[in-house]
Amino acid sequence: MDLSAADADIDVEASVRIVDGIGSFGAIEFSTLTAKDILTTKFINLQGGYDYYNEYGRIKGFSVRRSKMGRRTK
Questions:
Q1: Is the distance from CB of 42 to CB of 18 less than 8 angstroms?
Q2: SS3 of 19, please?
């Protein structure tokens, strides 16, 4: 799916889901999330975003990795 096409399908007035951590996951049914649901999710902090996508990946069958970007000094 082309992301620009997905962006065009999202209504500006669409309800935005705000996730602030694992405690707010109880109301989310990860197995039924659509691309629109994923694209309209906002996170309070990076840890909440990581936990959200980690749980989504676990349900959908893929893994999530958080890595550090570093600069090699030589």
A1: yes
A2: strand
Q: Which two three-digit tokens encode residue 48? A: 């909440």
CB 68 within 8 A of CB 43: no
Q: What whole-number distance in Å separates Cα of residue 63 and Cα of residue 15?
A: 27
The pairing of strands 17-19 and 41-43 is: parallel
What's the token pair of residue 54?
Answer: 């980690």
How far apart (Å, rounded) are the C-alpha atoms in residues 33 and 11? 17
Average confidence (pLDDT) over 25-31: 78
Task: Provide the sign of the torsion angle of the four alpha carbons 65, 4, 35, 38, taken in this order.
Answer: positive
State the sign of the Cα–Cα–Cα–Cα dihedral 4, 60, 33, 37.
Answer: negative
What does the alpha-carbon distance between residue 34 and residue 2 come to, in Å, rounded to a whole number? Answer: 14
pTM: 0.62
